[in-house]
Amino acid sequence: MAAYEMNFDGLVGPTHNYGGLSYGNVASQSNSQAASSPKEAAKQGLAKMKALMDMGFKQGVLAPQERPDVAALRRLGFTGSDVEVIQRAAREAMPLLVASCSASSMWTANACTVSPSADTADGRVHFTAANLNCKFHRSIEHPTTSRVLQAMFSNDAHFAHHPALPAVAQFGDEGAANHTRFCKGYGDAGVEFFVYGRSAFDTRYPAPARYPARQTLEASQAVARLHGLSEAGVVYAQQNPAVIDQGVFHNDVIAVGNGEVLFYHQDAFLDTDKVLTELGDKLARRGGNFQAVCVPGSAVSVQDAVRSYLFNSQLLSRADGSMLLVVPEECRNNPSVWRYLQQLTASGRPIREVRVFDLKQSMQNGGGPACLRLRVALNEQELAAVNPGVVMSDALQDTLVAWVDKHYRDRLSEADLADPQLLTECRTALDELTQILTLGSVYPFQIA
Questions:
Q1: Which whole-number Å values give the CA distances from 331 to 220, 247, 355, 369, in the listed order?
Q2: What pLDDT is recorded for position 27?
Q3: Of 371, 382, 407, 426, which is the active-site residue?
Q4: pLDDT (0 to 100) of residue 410
């Protein structure tokens, strides 16, 4: 049976703003308090989705969260009507209001971890929503994320959904941003690669000194157990603590993989040779030929990798076996990165083409092409079971662009988050969106 990798991109929400909420994410912090353009951000994301669809890649869309999250503010002691809750939070605790308005669910690489049916014990596609408990503004996402995913992948015969892991530091889980799958073909049994920043219970493992390690070994192991993965199909690797302290807050800021290829910076992992050997051996036993493409620090420094988001790119397979690398405009604007990419595509190695996209609104908040998408490998039967309302088409693209034009603001500053009208605008937009995407009632205001 034929199988495909489908990318589900996060639709940028109406409250897209630069709150500087993500400690350890250099771009997020450096652009804090700048004015954003939600309309431009959403259209940049939709343009990328449309372009990849036009190139023949299977593309879907994942809906944003309800924001402001009034329920989260109520749990923190703010009372009264919804408008009064927002106004009181603005007066007494503006950082909490900003957090409750975060549009960070746009980065669907953090939505969950996905294991295809070819890898799992029960032969279903498994989803575990990420708890994202390292940051308050993200820790409130997973209940709605779970409802949206269940509305998208609702057929129990093909799909299995797991709730987020316990919301404690020992089980910090950041989803697919720290997970990669290698395989000969998308329908073949593969090797799932879990990258963690620290161990919660074993002090023998090193940890970063400056910035937090968001993913724990124990969380990765728990997800593998929930998904019914075999030992022969799993590899765990520790991220280099030194690069976390340089702003590499997720593995997808320093490495990206697809098919049989891992594209990574030489400083990405601890015990790199051991990791590569294990990946190669386990993939070989599953019929694959593992290929590692290492970017030396002499060609691209960690700092330039973080500035450009070279590795926060999409690595996509072409029909002829070659691979396409989708990168943000910042890569072309960085001389050392662009020079390396020209050499890479001319070398005859698997990555033979680079496509550049303008994703400035997302990049300024710390998320590039890879952050914006969730990869789901599906066979033909599973693909047919996906909610058709979330599958990108020319008609859906046109509808969503018109929806953005109708509901989104051109400019949003921190002060605008206290505007009670913003809540009304967001709920009106999302209520219409659930009808467009045929999701049913997934938002708190719809099911209260």
A1: 30, 17, 10, 12
A2: 47
A3: 371
A4: 96
The β-bridge relationship of strands 261-265 and 291-295 is parallel
Active site residue 425: no
Structure tokens at 288: 């694959």
- Model confidence at 296: pLDDT above 60: yes
State the CB neighbour count (10 A cutoff) for residue 1: 7
Secondary structure (3-state) at 160? strand
Nearest to 15 by CA among 421, 396, 369, 357: 421
Q: Where are the beta strands (DSSP E) in 27-155?
A: 58-62, 112-115, 125-129
Q: 125: which 2 tokens?
A: 């596609």
Query: Out of 137, 161, 250, 407, which one is annotated catalytic?
Result: 250
User: Which residue blocks in 174-284 are alpha helix, DSSP H?
Assistant: 217-226, 241-244, 272-284
End-to-end CA distance of the chain: 42
Kindly indicate the confidence band of residue 319, based on its pLDDT and cuts at 50, 70 and 90.
confident
- Give the C-alpha separation, 314 to 351, whole Å: 11
pLDDT over 60 (residue 129): yes
Q: What is the number of H-type helices and E-type strands within the chain?
A: 18, 15
Task: Quote the tokens at residue 241.
Answer: 């603590």
Summarised one tens digit per residue, pLDDT across range 393-424 is 999 999 999 999 999 999 999 999 999 999 99
Instruction: Choose among 49, 77, 82: nearest CA to 66.
Output: 82
Taking 70 as the threshold, does the pLDDT of residue 100 lie above it? yes
Here the tokens at position 158 are 């093909």
- Of these residues, 5, 141, 174, 218, which one is catalytic? 174
Per residue, the 3-state secondary structure of 104-136, as one string, reads HHHCHHHCEEEECCCCCCCCCEEEEECCCCCCH
- Of 38, 42, 36, 37, whose CA–CA distance to 11 is shortest? 42
Q: For 378, list phi and psi in degrees, rounded to 5.
A: -140, 140
Task: Name 240's Cβ contacts closer than 8 Å, sequence gap at least 6.
Answer: 248, 254, 267, 268, 269, 270
Active site residue 174: yes
Rounded mean pLDDT, 283-306? 97
Nearest to residue 266, comparing CAs of 301, 304, 243, 294?
294
Instruction: Determine contact, residues 124/191, Cβ cutoff 8 Å.
Output: no
Q: Work out whether strand 3-10 and strand 112-115 pair parallel, antiparallel, or are unpaired.
A: unpaired
Asked if 250 is an active-site residue, the reply is yes
Q: Which stretches of 173-278 are assigned E, i.e. beta strand?
A: 179-182, 191-196, 234-238, 255-258, 261-265
* Total residue count of the chain as it appears in this document: 448
State the residue for tokens 């030929």: 289
The model's pLDDT over 147-164, given as tens digits with 9 standing for 90+, comes to 999 999 999 999 999 999
209 pLDDT more than 80: yes
